[in-house]
């Protein structure tokens, strides 16, 4: 394969994240810089586009379903691809192997498996990509989980440590800061006047089917002492109180891969992801606590073109909990209007920002790796250019709370 040119293949270009990435490539300064480094951008999806493709430079391939590593390998060979940007649901492990063998870099927003294999719990899926099970790929770089969470929040963990250390005058290490916990917190307040009505509608700002699959995993988990620890309940069965910016949310402890990967570098602290989904989605779950399958719901996507009368914000960041210095939250607060200006919503814009930030460093490391192994300052510089600067809230008097302390009384009743 000729590697004198940079030829990118974007898979899943017509999905919500795909559209947002293409819009950023076309309209943002960060996207323009990246476009100028690429000799070709090829686009592929399993379905035709719903409307115009928002990237003039993009070359749209015929609709193609990728169901195996050999399907991907055929596209890479045929079009002399040097970097694959996966915004779909192809198997991360199989496809990184195929790309490495063919000399192509690979980037994805989360760990995925082939749909025909059935759903695998998050901790089991990510375990395939970390030592001792990680395959020893050595030809090209394969960046796994470069979206919002995972992705942006991985970098925010180190930015928050630096910020708290600067404020209190100690070394930027978990030990010097006496950190007890690092919580990733997200509060999505997106709502839409044009969403369908009914308590059987599950409306979400990203894939509603994938969101339900995540919420219906058999166990919520955290990480302690470098290990994944089950919390003794399913994600929907408890709510946890935690700061998200300048307010306290009551979110679910959702199984996420950044919890697993961050604990490998920050093993001395408790790590978990607390997620408060939009109000309408919470009400739908409350109305049907017995439903455990995506097939039982009417699914609705809270982003254009499926919903356009959107309002609200998606706030996502990292909360440091110190035994000595209280709590510090650092993150991004993205208004829906920022997404709508690009034909997307706040949530998809955040993910797309993480894709661009990771793409700018794709190939800087060899083998399978995660965002925390990149230049996190450079990563967040690109993200901030898209989303605006980070928000910081420091409460030096905040009480030190464990996850058990944060369980909301009666939280089994939505």
Explain the overall architecture.
With 414 residues, this protein is an alpha/beta fold. 31% of the residues lie in helices and 24% in strands. It is built from 14 helices and 20 strands. The chain has helices spanning 16-27, 29-37, 69-78, 92-102, 122-127, 152-168, 174-177, 208-215, 257-262, 279-287, 336-340, 346-359, 376-387, 403-406, and strands at residues 7-11, 40-44, 58-60, 83-86, 105-108, 141-143, 179-188, 191-192, 201-204, 221-224, 227-230, 240-244, 247-253, 270-276, 298-301, 310-311, 313-322, 326-335, 367-369, 391-395. It has a seven-stranded parallel β-sheet with strand order 3-2-1-4-5-6-19, with helices on both faces. Strands 12-13-14-7-17-18-20 form a seven-stranded mixed β-sheet. It has a two-stranded antiparallel ribbon with strand order 8-16. Helix 5 (122-127) links the parallel strand 5 and strand 6 (141-143). Helix 1 (16-27) packs across helix 2 (29-37), helix 3 packs parallel to helix 4 (92-102) and helix 6 (152-168) packs across helix 13 (376-387). The mean pLDDT is 95.
Low-confidence stretches: none
Give a count of the beta strands, DSSP E runs of length 2 or more. Answer: 20
Beta content comes to 15-25%
Terminal residue distance: 55 Å
Query: Major beta sheet, specifics?
Result: 7 strands, parallel
Number of helices: 14
Name the average pLDDT: 95
Q: Helix fraction?
A: 25-40%
Strand order of the largest sheet: 3-2-1-4-5-6-19
